[in-house]
């Protein structure tokens, strides 16, 4: 089971290195998109890792902007043009960490081979508040004086964005594990249809619904499993995940998920040490 991990990050290279160390085996490769705002030299040690490739086309990523999607697409392009044949691409951030061993992760994907793991809710009837993301023009990726005034003026003067005909919208978490064929389909669908790309470019947080929407409106829809492979806890009354710490270790041990988020080595390094110990025990049993 050949797995490509696409890591979108701007955070601590030491923590990212630890994550890669726990995920590494002979059948894994890592493609890192480092936010263009961050000096590549900060991650120089990771560049020496034989299984790590840094995505050359770097993007200045803005939270909730289309720039995040573009960073993902650039990573997908690097994976698909690498000359290596993969069974799965897993999207991770620098604040994720595995809670299963490489053998357990490989076994999971072998058991569910061909399935696409994306968490989703339908906008219509379930996630109605998400329509705000696509019913106005959002200039998230732009920085200029008077931006918010301009954005408000555009939305007052222009008709609402025209949604792609017949398209139903779905979304939730940005993280997924899908086949290279599905990733290629989404990437090329957007890149080869300028009108579709323009529509998503001016939405809010498209990283949380573009992949789900495109795949669930395609021939891949029957392969989609409404779940991703991440364990996380939401803060009350917000969509943001809580920071995980030692208080969460028991739940992490019992979880059937492959990865968890989000962690900070600076906030709580002990939880990563504890997970490392858990994974070492499991690897010992495997051997």
From TrEMBL:
Any single biological process term in GO: heparan sulfate proteoglycan biosynthetic process
Pfam family example for this protein? Answer: Branch
Q: Which UniProt keywords apply?
A: Disulfide bond, Endoplasmic reticulum, Glycoprotein, Glycosyltransferase, Golgi apparatus, Membrane, Metal-binding, Signal-anchor, Transferase, Transmembrane, Transmembrane helix
According to its record, what are the GO cellular component terms?
A: membrane
Q: From the record, what ranges are coiled-coil?
A: none
Query: Which cellular compartments is it found in?
Result: Endoplasmic reticulum membrane; Golgi apparatus membrane
Q: What membrane topology was assigned to this protein in its record?
A: Single-pass type II membrane protein
GO MF annotation list:
metal ion binding; protein xylosyltransferase activity
Q: What is this protein called?
A: Peptide O-xylosyltransferase
Q: Which organism is it from?
A: Sediminibacterium ginsengisoli
